[in-house]
Amino acid sequence: MELKDLLSFIAEEEERLRQRYASSDEEKRILRRTVKLMEELGELSNDIMKALSLQRGEKLKGFTKEDLAEEFADVLIVALILAKTLDVDIEEALEKKMRKIEARYTSK
Is the pLDDT score of 108 beyond 70? Predict the structure, then answer.
């Protein structure tokens, strides 16, 4: 999969969510998606704890690496939907951030 495919999916999903949870209040839509991102981060954190066997035994039952991978995907998708909602050009933002990170290593 290429980034353009992911961003195409994100645009479609963002529109489906707009239609499903129709609201003329953009601020509420942004807050809802921010809360959803925090929920997904919590679920990812929980699965990381499971992957490291740092949860109680009963919480470890049935856990798989696929669960962990799915939570990473959820976080990325929700974060990208939120970025789209806020009109962030994520490709540009990623390229700029990557250059900034690279500069940390080349300027020494």
Answer: no
pTM metric for this prediction: 0.86
What's the whole-number mean pLDDT along residues 32-37?
96
The CATH number of whichever domain residue 23 belongs to comes to 1.10.287.1080
Tokens (6 digits) for 71? 């939570």
Q: Which two tokens mark 101?
A: 């990170």
Whether residue 9 contacts residue 90, with contact meaning beta carbons closer than 8 Å, is answered with no
Distances (CA, A) of 98 to 4, 31, 57: 17, 27, 40
As for how many domains the chain has, the answer is 1
Residue 28 is encoded by which pair of tokens? 């509420």
Mean pLDDT of the region 27-53:
95
Exposure string over 60-95, b if 16+ CB within 10 A, otherwise e: eeebeeeebeebeebbebbbbbbbbbeeeeeeeeee
